[in-house]
Amino acid sequence: MAKISIDESDEELITRLREGESDVTDYIMNKYKDMVRTKAASMYILGADKDDLIQEGMIGLFKAVRDYDAGRDASFRTFADLCVSRQMYTAIQASNRKKHAPLNSYISLYAKMDGHDEDKEFSLDQMLEDINDKNPEAMMIDKENTRDIEEFIENGLSDFEKSVLELHMTGMGYAQIAKVLGRDEKSTDNALQRLKNKIRKYVNNI
Question: Phi and psi (nearest 5°) for 122?
């Protein structure tokens, strides 16, 4: 195996790879495998198996190594993160289309509740807890509300808004979401604010 110094940058390693040192690929793949695992842990809530996502992420990482162009792209780390995210999200979309599955019931939705700090955001569970008391009848209403909200998300948001919501729930900001979806940052941020307003209005009318 080629001798590699820990002081060498990713970009220098990619240059060596392009010059024929194929062993560099294994080194980079091993270097970034923990990043792939971390990203898989945050994205599997969208409906795919975590092990499958890790496998898809490693494919995305390999594509990053193969396609990285130092003269065109940002740093290799940023480019790799984007390629891994895209590969995983594409796999999730394909899986969900195959299952015809709705959005998971436990994703966090944000809405401001009456009587609370206007700047504070609440998860779906907190929202439903605030709406109802802790008794059996109320818990049944909670489940009905959850189903209603899921149905609203499925039918009341555009495909783009649903994609933005799904990625936002993994912790991504609008800039990263824009890169994964191949859209500009302004339209992505607008979609994020728009979908939050739609969900907020719907929940406040429940």
Answer: -125, 140
**So what's the pLDDT on residue 138?**
47
Residues counted in the chain? 206
CB count in 10 Å sphere of residue 41: 13
pTM above 0.70, yes or no: no
Sequential DSSP letters for 89-139: HHHHHHHHHHHTPPPPTTS---BPPTTS-TT--B-HHHHHHHHS-SSHHHH
Helix axes 23-31, 10-18, angle to 10 degrees: 150
Query: Hunting for tokens 């594509």 — which residue is that?
Result: 63
Higher pLDDT: 34 or 90? It is: 34
pLDDT (tens digit per residue) in 129-167: 444 444 454 444 455 666 777 788 888 899 899 888 888
Amino acid at 78: T
Domains present along the chain, CATH in parentheses: 10-99 (1.10.1740.10), 124-204 (1.10.10)
Radius of gyration of the chain (CA): 21
Sign of CA dihedral 26, 52, 50, 162: positive
